[in-house]
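Practice set, problem 2.
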Amino acid sequence: MRPRQLPLINKTDYSARKWVEADCNRVATRWVFGWSKERVDKLACFCGPRGSGKTHLVNIFKELHGAFEFFPNDCKTAPSEILEKIRLPSNPISSSKVEGAYEAQNRSVLDIHEDSSIEATNKFAEEIEFRKKSIEQKNAKNAFFFDNIENFKEDWLFNMYNIIKSFNASAIFTITTQPREWRFNLKDLESRLKATTIINIFPPDDNLIKSIIIKQTQDYSLYIDRQTIEYLVQRIPRDFESIVYWIKKINEISIMLKEKISKKLINQTLKSPDFMDDSGSV
């Protein structure tokens, strides 16, 4: 039985360097990494089940382009008061156009992300830091996101949608269901969201799960052979947060027992109380 997904104790690293692109998330990845104020489709709705990577992507949107994050608790504040704080510009600044290590060569963040060369890998982090500083200096507020819009008050979200659109700004809305399943009480909000660019993010497949595992083990300087990875893929929850958690757990037990990562060690980890499902079985 596959274990239940557990709340994480440590804050998940939602940085761009941790992101793994695959067929199931490619369209959304390119929308985020390749964003600029010149794009025509300024408003997008990312649809996908829990664990598909929506939250990770919108946090990359914040990291790379200075996007402003709204929370459900913000619904207690009138949109007019929020406007006074964020000062939406009529002609938003494009953080993707700042001069950087790769901009001189007409290289965008998306290009660098897709380039597998060692030079690009090293420059990627430098470019992100440069853009972050440029965003802070210019106080750009031309991009926004609302993660898990099911948790927002509909009338407030409707007003914020209209405000952002009127300022010709960009926004990402994330939701766990597909448009055909939407049942908003406020039909005007539903119709406006359906008018955005709808981008589906699908659950990770085995290849993506393997890539995430490999990336996480490399961060810990761990070596896991191919057969053990295949074994692990079939036994852990299939979402980014859970994979990060369990690789960390496996690493801790490996250090504690002074053993290399093996199927035996993985089984020991899986038998820990954290890995039990609600019925008490693994």
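Problem 2, part (b): a different protein.
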Amino acid sequence: MSAAIPRKHHYISKCYLKAFADVKPNKKGRYLKVIDLENASTFEANIEDCAAKRDFNRYEGIGDEQALEHSIADIENEVGPVLDELRDSRQLTHERIDASICFMTMYYSRNLPGRENLENFVAGVLQQYRLTEGGLELPETLPSQNRLIQLELEQIPVVSGHLKMRHWKLLDSSSVSEEFVTSNSPVTLFSDNDQSSTFWGIDLQTSRTVVFFPISPTLALYGTLEDTTTPLVTLDLVAKLNNHTVEGRGTQLYYRDDFKVRKPDGNIVDSSVVLSKSILNKCARS
């Protein structure tokens, strides 16, 4: 009997998500706390069901339409243990930085919120051509998944190159007993003047851009183009970085325990405020 074809594709790896999850009594697997920013809801979910979409990596019209999914699984199996070593040792090495850059490149270039933004952008460009180029024959449908995958994969060497140019610092929040939150788009960009990135805003080439990547509830990578001193980890810094994650491109937040965010007015509040804000935003869209 042939092996079952994988259809649930994780665009954020389970080997990454597991660090933010807990084992639940009488339940199989590991569970995350989730805040869904689009639906303004909170719940617990098995990592099997988080940051995944049916056939996300399926590339149609070739012999093995699951080849990309298989290739990503091979990368995760090879590089995932190195990320575990970083979490356990709490020490950076060149090998561990390279492994982290591998995951950051995949997650920055290829995630569900990013694909939806890319799809809307390409569709908007096509629509603009229809309006400005009278009689130009262009497809009325949205760009195909194959084309979106191609565009995502084209970003990978560029993104990887920019990440390798950065100086990486390891932030440890255990000393202040506070935790980092992550999301389904876990690589966050912001300016060192604290301005958060939008989809087409702050980019990896900007000299003042900071790249932030939580790797566990108490560890995160902080990348800058200039080799600066490691930021002092305080409650204020953890809350500020969590706010950048909340304000980033992700549509779902994943965390182990309640976390703190810093509001624009400087006040530090707990994660319940994030859910309240998403509820208000949902009401405003209705």
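Answer key, part (b): The chain has a mean pLDDT of 88. The chain has one domain: 8-285.
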